[in-house]
Design goal:
alpha/beta, Amino acid/polyamine transporter I, Rossmann fold, 10-stranded mixed β-sheet, 3-stranded antiparallel β-sheet, 33 helices, about 50% helix, elongated, Solute carrier family 12 member 4, KCL_cotranspt, membrane, potassium:chloride symporter activity
C-alpha cells in the first residue's frame, strides 16, 4: 500500500504535524445512530454530512440547547461525571468540620439541613486562639504549689534538668502535632481527631482514651489544688475535720480534701452542664490571674535584691520548727523585767516553769535561732541550693550548715518540726512536675474557631511552650537564689506561718499569689471538665469502641450529658485519693505507654550503665551484620517471622481499600523490548525510580509473543535483562514477564493479575506509540488504545509519558526550571500528587511548580485563582497559580480544515483496505512471496481483523479478474469523488477546536517547562473513532513541546 500523507493547511503558526506526537485520551465520537446535540450539520441519509455553516460563532452557540463550554468539548464526557474545577475548589476551600458533639454537627448529619443556621466564619487568630489558651492550660497548680518544693528537694541543677526533660517532651509532641496540623485543613474536634486520623482507629482509640483519662484526672488534680489553697492558705478555719491527736493531722486533711473536693466537683459539673459559654466568659479572668501572679513573682525577686521581705524561720539546732504553733522563736522571754518561759518551752517541756525533768533532750542541748526565710537574690544562697536534698517520709527538714548536737529527741514532739510527708527521688519529682507542662492541646482543640488553623496551631503552640519553659527555667533560678533551702523544702509553708512559699517572695503581697493561684486552678479544672466529655463523645461517635456508644449522645444543644456524668464519676475517684502528689503521677502515666518497659526496667535496675553499653554494642553488631549482608541460610526464625509478618500485612491490606490520605501510585510499568530483548525505553524505569523513591509497590511488566513451552528460556532472559536495568536505574520492585500468543492479551493479563492480595498496582505506566501515523497498519495504535480501555475497565489510573527520551537521568540535577500542571478536569487530586512526589527526588527538588487551570464560560476566574491558592496552601504545596481564560469559542478555518483532512485521511485508509474475502483469496500468494509487513511496535504485531495487504501482489489474469479490476477502478473514482465532497462531523470539529486552543495556550505558557503534566481525555466508546482520538492527542501536544517530557494522566476512580 502506498504511504499516505496529509498536508495541513498553510498557517504561519503550524508546521507539518505528521512527524509530531501527542498524548492524552478521550472519547468524543458519536455512537452509531446517536445525534450530537451540538451538531449544526445535517445528513442526507447516506452518511454524507451537509454543513449548514462551516464556521461557528457565539451567536450560533445556543442552537443545540444546553451544552458544555465548546472550548472544552474534548473533555465533555469527563465533565458529565466529574465536578467542574471551579465548583470543586469552592467546596474544598469552604470545607470545615464542626466540633463533634456540637449542635451544628448533629444538624449536618440530619436530613433537616434546610433550617440550618448560617455558621459564623472562624475569626480567632494566633494570639487569642492558641497562644493565650495554651499558656493558661500549661500554667497551673504545680507552678504555685510544688515548684518551690521541687527546687528545694532536687536542687537548682537537677530541677533545671527535670524542667528541661519535661519541656523537651512537650516540644517534640508539639512539633509532631504541628506536622499533622499543617497537613491540610484542620477540622474541629480536637487532638483526638488528629491522632485517630493519623495513626488509625486502633492507636487513635487507645491514645484517645488515655488522653481522656489524663484530662479527667487533670481536672481532679486542679480541684484538689484549689481545695489545698483554700483550706491551707485562705480559710483554714473552714475545715470540717480536725485532728484529735498529733498524728491524725494527715487523715483529717485528706478527709477535708475529699468533702470539699466533691462539693467543688459537683459545682463545676453543674456549670459545665448549664453551658460552655459561662466557662469561656471566665477564661479571660482566670488567665489574667495567672499572668498577674507570675509578674508578682518576678517583681518580688527584683525587690529582694535591695529589700528582702521579712519572713523569719525558727530553727532548733539545725532543725526547722513549724511556726504556726508558737509566736516567739525563743526558749525564754522577759516580761516586766521577769524572765518567763515561752510557748515553745511549754511545747517541748510540757510545763510553764523552768523544770527540765520532762523536757526534750534535743531541745535542751541545742539553741533556738532565727534565720531569714527570704535572704534575697544578693545573699549568695544560690550556692547552697544547687545540690539535691532528697528526704524519706517523716524526716525532719534540716539546715546542714547549722551547728547541732546529733540527738534523736522525743518522738512525741515530731509534730513540732517541719516534716517530709513523702519519700522523694528524682523520678518522683519528674512524675509530679510533668503535668505542669501539659496542656499544649488547647490550641488544637479550638481548631474549628481559628481563622488559619494551619498557621496558628504550630506557631501559637510552640511559642506558648517556649514562653512557659522560659518562665519555669527562670523561676527555678529565682527560687534557688532568693529563698532559704529549708523554706523551699517546706511543701505547705509551715515554717513561714502557713503562708504559701511562693507567696512569700511575691510583691506587693502574698495574697496576690494565693488568690491568683486559687482562681487559676479553678479555671483549669473547669477547662478540663469541659474538654474531657467532648473528647469521650468524639470517641463514642466514631463507634470504634462499641460499648461506649451511649456516651455519644447528649442534650438537644449538643452538650455531652452522659459523657459529662462519666467524667465526673472518674474525677471523683481522683478526688477520693485526696492527695495531689498521688494524682499527679496518675496523670503522667496516662500520657505514657508502660507495656514494654518491664524488661528494660529490670536491665536498668540491675545496672543502668551496663544496660546502656549492652544495648549499644548489640545494636552496632546487628547493624554491621545487616549492612555487610551476611548471606547465610541457616533456616533461622527471622525469615519465618518475615514471612508471617508479610502474610499478616497482606491480609490486613485486604480488609478494605486505602483511604484517600494513604493513596499513593503503586505502579505497573509496561516495558517494550527490542528484538535482542533489550529495554527500548529505559527512561520509563528512571521515571518510576524518581516517582517512587524506593517506596511502595513497583512492578515492571513486559509481554513476549509466542508459545510458553517454546519461549520459556527467552522469558527468563528477558526477566534477567529487566532486573539488571532495574538495578542500574535504582528501581526497587518486582519483575513480571508474560508469554502470550497476542501482545494485547498478555497486557490484559498483566493488568488483571499482577500483585498479590491487597498489594496490587493502582496505576499503569504505558509508553506512547511513536510513529503510529507513519505506519500503514492500524494495529500500530490499536493496541495502545486497547490497553487504555483495559486500564479504564480495571478502574486504574493511567500515566502516559511522551518524549520520554528527554526525561532526566538520576544523575542529573535541575537547579532551576518549572514543573507545569495543567488541571483541566477533576481527577481525584493525582495531578497535584505527582509533582509533589517527584520533587522529593534530588533531580527535581529545586524546580518550581506551576499549576494552570482552565476557566469555563460561566466561571469567575478571579475567584478560581483565589480558591486554588487557598486549596494549595491547605495542602502545603508551594506553587504558582494561574487561571487560563479561553473565551474565544469561534472555530477558525484552520481547525475546520484540519478536521476535514483528518476525516479524509481516515476515509481514504478505510477505502484502500482489502475486504476479508479478498485477503483470504490472496493469502497463499502473500505467504509464498513472504510479503507480510513487519511492524516496529511490539504492541502491534498480533493478528487483527484489519490486516493490511502487501505492497505488490503477482496474479495470473483471467476474464473474471479483469472484469473485477475494471469495477475496482470505477469504484476508486467514485470513492475519490466522495472523499472530495465529505463534510467534517461537527462533533469532531469541536473536539479539534479544544485540542488546537489548548495546545496554543500550553505552548505559549509551558514552552520552557522541564516537565508538563495534563489530564488525558478518555478513550472513545465507539471504536470507529479510535483513529480520530489519536489525532486529537497529537494535536494537543504538538509543535514546540517536542523537547519537553510530557506526562498525560487520567484517573478513573476518584479519590475525593
Amino acid at each position: 500500500m502506498p504511504h499516505f500523507t496529509v498536508v495541513p493547511v498553510d498557517d504561519k503558526r503550524r508546521v507539518d504535524y505528521a512527524s509530531l506526537e501527542g498524548l492524552s485520551w478521550v472519547d468524543y465520537r458519536d455512537p452509531p445512530g446517536a445525534a450530537d446535540p451540538y451538531d449544526t450539520a445535517s445528513s442526507d441519509g447516506h452518511g454524507n454530512h451537509k454543513e449548514n455553516s462551516p464556521f461557528l460563532n457565539n451567536s450560533e452557540a445556543g442552537k443545540g440547547g444546553d451544552y458544555y463550554d465548546r472550548n472544552l468539548a474534548l473533555f465533555e464526557e469527563e465533565l458529565d461525571i466529574r465536578p467542574k474545577v471551579s465548583s470543586l475548589l469552592g467546596k474544598l476551600v469552604s470545607y470545615t468540620n464542626l466540633t463533634q458533639g456540637a449542635k451544628e454537627h448533629e444538624e449536618a448529619e440530619s436530613a433537616e439541613g434546610s433550617r440550618r443556621k448560617i455558621s459564623k466564619s472562624p475569626s480567632m487568630g494566633t494570639l487569642m486562639g492558641v497562644y493565650l489558651p495554651c499558656m493558661q492550660n500549661i500554667f497551673g497548680v504545680i507552678l504555685f504549689l510544688r515548684l518551690t518544693w521541687m527546687v528545694g528537694t532536687a536542687g537548682v541543677l537537677q530541677s533545671f534538668l527535670i524542667v528541661l526533660i519535661c519541656c523537651c517532651c512537650t516540644m517534640l509532641t508539639a512539633i509532631s502535632m504541628s506536622a499533622i496540623a499543617t497537613n491540610g485543613v484542620v477540622p474541629a474536634g480536637g487532638s483526638y481527631f488528629m491522632i485517630s486520623r493519623s495513626l488509625g482507629p486502633e492507636f487513635g482509640g487507645a491514645v484517645g482514651l488515655c488522653f481522656y483519662l489524663g484530662t479527667t484526672f487533670a481536672g481532679a488534680m486542679y480541684i484538689l489544688g484549689a481545695i489545698e489553697i483554700l483550706l491551707t492558705y485562705i480559710a483554714p478555719q473552714a475545715a470540717i475535720f480536725h485532728p484529735t491527736g498529733a498524728h491524725d493531722a494527715s487523715s483529717a486533711t485528706l478527709n477535708n480534701m475529699r468533702v470539699y473536693g466533691t462539693i467543688f466537683l459537683i459545682l463545676m459539673a453543674v456549670v459545665v452542664f448549664v453551658g460552655v459559654k459561662y466557662v469561656n466568659k471566665f477564661a479571660s479572668l482566670f488567665l489574667a490571674c495567672v499572668i498577674i501572679s507570675i509578674l508578682s513573682i518576678y517583681a518580688g525577686a527584683i525587690k529582694s535584691i535591695f529589700d528582702p521581705p521579712e519572713f523569719p524561720i525558727c530553727m532548733l539546732g539545725n532543725r526547722t520548727l513549724s511556726r504556726d504553733q508558737f509566736d516567739i522563736c525563743a526558749k525564754t522571754m522577759v516580761v516586766d523585767n521577769i524572765t518567763v518561759v515561752t510557748k515553745l518551752w511549754q511545747l517541748f517541756c510540757h510545763n510553764s516553769n523552768f523544770t527540765t525533768d520532762n523536757c526534750d533532750e534535743y531541745f535542751m542541748l541545742n539553741n533556738v535561732t532565727e534565720i531569714a526565710g527570704i535572704p534575697g537574690a544578693a545573699s549568695g544562697i544560690l550556692k547552697d541550693n544547687l545540690w539535691s536534698n532528697y528526704l524519706e517520709k517523716g524526716e525532719i527538714l534540716e539546715k546542714a550548715v547549722h551547728s547541732s548536737l546529733d540527738i534523736r529527741g522525743l518522738k512525741s514532739n515530731l509534730h513540732l518540726y517541719v516534716l517530709s510527708d513523702i519519700a522523694t527521688s528524682f523520678t518522683v519529682l519528674v512524675g509530679i512536675f510533668f503535668p505542669s507542662v501539659t496542656g499544649i492541646m488547647a490550641g488544637s482543640n479550638r481548631s474549628g474557631d481559628l481563622k488559619d488553623a494551619q498557621k496558628s496551631i504550630p506557631v501559637g503552640t510552640i511559642l506558648a511552650i517556649i514562653t512557659t519553659s522560659l518562665v519555669y527555667f527562670s523561676c527555678v533560678v529565682l527560687f534557688g537564689a532568693c529563698i532559704e533551702g529549708v523554706v523551699l523544702r517546706d511543701k505547705y509553708g509551715d515554717a513561714v506561718n502557713k503562708n504559701l512559699v511562693v507567696g512569700t517572695l511575691s510583691w506587693p503581697s502574698p495574697w496576690v499569689i494565693v488568690i491568683g493561684s486559687f482562681f487559676s486552678t479553678c479555671g483549669a479544672g473547669l477547662q478540663s471538665l469541659t474538654g474531657a466529655p467532648r473528647l469521650l463523645q468524639a470517641i463514642a461517635k466514631d463507634n470504634i469502641i462499641p460499648f461506649l456508644w451511649v456516651f455519644g449522645h447528649g442534650k438537644a444543644n449538643g452538650e455531652p450529658t452522659w459523657a459529662l456524668l462519666l467524667t465526673a464519676l472518674i474525677a471523683e475517684l481522683g478526688i477520693l485519693i485526696a492527695s495531689l502528689d498521688m494524682v499527679a503521677p496518675i496523670l503522667s502515666m496516662a500520657l505514657s505507654f508502660l507495656g514494654m518497659s518491664i524488661c528494660l526496667a529490670l536491665m536498668f535496675i540491675s545496672s543502668w550503665y551496663y544496660a546502656l553499653v549492652a544495648m549499644l554494642i548489640a545494636g552496632m553488631i546487628y547493624k554491621y551484620i545487616e549492612y555487610q549482608g551476611a548471606e547465610k541460610e541457616w533456616g533461622d526464625g527471622i525469615r519465618g517471622l518475615s514471612l508471617s509478618a508479610a502474610r499478616y500485612a497482606l491480609l490486613r491490606l485486604e480488609e478494605g481499600p486505602p483511604h484517600t490520605k494513604n493513596w499513593r501510585p503503586q505502579l505497573l510499568v509496561l516495558l517494550k523490548l527490542d528484538e535482542d530483548l533489550h529495554v527500548k525505553y529505559p527512561r520509563l524505569l528512571t521515571f518510576a525510580s524518581q516517582l517512587k523513591a524506593g517506596k511502595g509497590l513497583t512492578i515492571i511488566g513486559t509481554v513476549i509473543q509466542g508459545n510458553f513451552l517454546e519461549s520459556y528460556g527467552e522469558a527468563q532472559a528477558a526477566e534477567q535483562t529487566i532486573k539488571n536495568m532495574m538495578e542500574i536505574e535504582k528501581v526497587k520492585g518486582f519483575c513480571q514477564v508474560v508469554v502470550a500468543n497476542k501482545v494485547r492479551e498478555g497486557i490484559a493479563h498483566l493488568i488483571q493479575s499482577c500483585g498479590l492480595g491487597g498489594m496490587k498496582h493502582n496505576t499503569v505506566v504505558l509508553g506512547w506509540p511513536y510513529g503510529w501515523r507513519q505506519s500503514e497498519d492500524p494495529r500500530a495504535w490499536k493496541t495502545f488504545i486497547d490497553t487504555v480501555r483495559c486500564t479504564t475497565a480495571a478502574h486504574l489510573a493511567l500515566l502516559v509519558p511522551k518524549n520520554v527520551s528527554f526525561y532526566p537521568s538520576n544523575h542529573e540535577r535541575y537547579n532551576e526550571g518549572n514543573i507545569d500542571v495543567w488541571w483541566i478536569v477533576h481527577d481525584g487530586g493525582m495531578l497535584m500528587l505527582l509533582p509533589f512526589l517527584l520533587k522529593q527526588h534530588k533531580v527535581w527538588r529545586k524546580c518550581k511548580m506551576r499549576i494552570f487551570t482552565v476557566a469555563q464560560m460561566d466561571d469567575n476566574s478571579i475567584q478560581m485563582k483565589k480558591d486554588l491558592a487557598t486549596f494549595l496552601y491547605h495542602l502545603r504545596i508551594e506553587a504558582e497559580v494561574e487561571v487560563v481564560e479561553m473565551h474565544n469559542s469561534d472555530i477558525s478555518a484552520y481547525t475546520y480544515e484540519r478536521t476535514l483532512m483528518m476525516e479524509q485521511r481516515s476515509q481514504m485508509l478505510r477505502q484502500m483496505r482489502l475486504t476479508k474475502t479478498e485477503r483470504e483469496r490472496e493469502a497463499q500468494l502473500v505467504k509464498d512471496r513472504h510479503s507480510i509487513i513487519r511492524l516496529e511496535s511490539l504492541y502491534s504485531d498480533e493478528e487483527d481483523d484489519g490486516d493490511s495487504v502487501p505492497e505488490k501482489i503477482q496474479m495470473t489474469w483471467t476474464k473474471e479478474k479483469c472484469d473485477f479490476e475494471k469495477r475496482s477502478r470505477n469504484s476508486t473514482v467514485e470513492n475519490f469523488r466522495e472523499l472530495i465532497s465529505i463534510k467534517p462531523n461537527q462533533s469532531n470539529v469541536r473536539r479539534m477546536h479544544t485540542a488546537v486552543k489548548l495546545n496554543e495556550v500550553i505552548v505559549n505558557r509551558s514552552h520552557d517547562a522541564r516537565l508538563v503534566l495534563l489530564n488525558m481525555p478518555g478513550p472513545p466508546k465507539n471504536t470507529d473513532g479510535d483513529e480520530n482520538y489519536m489525532e486529537f492527542l497529537e494535536v494537543l501536544t504538538e509543535e514546540t513541546l517536542a523537547d519537553v517530557t510530557y506526562l498525560g494522566m487520567t484517573q478513573i476512580h476518584l479519590l475525593s
